[in-house]
């Protein structure tokens, strides 16, 4: 899998070199390229934004640097003879909500790029133009506004890369977690480790019983209970 991130704050993406994702890069399972959008500006001030047509507060990212950046990306791919069109994700609070199902789908994509907008967003013609060459999705991390797409891109990359075969040593740990199909898309039950008693709080008796059937039933009940309380929308 190859991931390209376009941003005016490349340093925001430094954590990609750490931990599981860093290891996946080292192991050759993943290639990550972070690009400073300003390299595709041509004025002295390296301008990437301008005032919005129609008026209003804030600034809009100019189309020209984005066009050149994406041209360079397409050129670097070379002719794509195998597999699907490259994916272009545009993080924005007005996008479709990012879900585990999307992460599952992205984990199979050979080429993914992120266009991280700042200010009031990217001139929309960039998105319309890019649809000719990419599978473009405008995606939101949640119903709140971040300062830009970088943190959202980091989260989406982490959610995706951990699903790429070979990235997580024990793939069984992916099966039982929250939102997984095997857990009926419920939230995960609470977990405990040793000691059995800590500061007057005890591990639920059933988990010490060694009775696998009862443990599984207790965990399922906990999942249903927690999900109905916190996320009733997930219960079908
Ligand atoms: N950019 C700003 N806010 C965002 C959000 N909630 N999701 C994705 N990208 C964003």
Describe this structure in words.
S-adenosyl-L-methionine binds at residues 117, 141-146. It comes from Brooklawnia propionicigenes. Its EC number is 2.1.1.228. Belongs to the RNA methyltransferase TrmD family. Homodimer. By secondary structure, the protein is an alpha/beta fold. The protein has 2 domains: 2-162, Alpha/beta knot (3-Layer(aba) Sandwich); 175-234, tRNA(m1g37)methyltransferase, domain 2 (Trp Operon Repressor, Chain A). 31% of the residues lie in helices and 18% in strands. It has 7 helices and 9 strands. The chain has helices at residues 19-26, 63-77, 100-106, 124-130, 150-161, 172-175, 212-230; strands spanning 2-7, 31-36, 49-50, 60-61, 87-97, 111-115, 135-140, 197-198, 201-202. The strands form 3 sheets. A 5-stranded parallel β-sheet has the order 2-1-6-5-7. It has a two-stranded antiparallel ribbon with strand order 3-4. It has a two-stranded antiparallel ribbon with strand order 8-9. Strand 8 (197-198) and strand 9 (201-202) form a beta hairpin. The radius of gyration is 22 Å and the shape is elongated. The two termini are 34 Å apart. Adenine binds at residues 91-93, 140-142, 144-146, 148-149, 152.
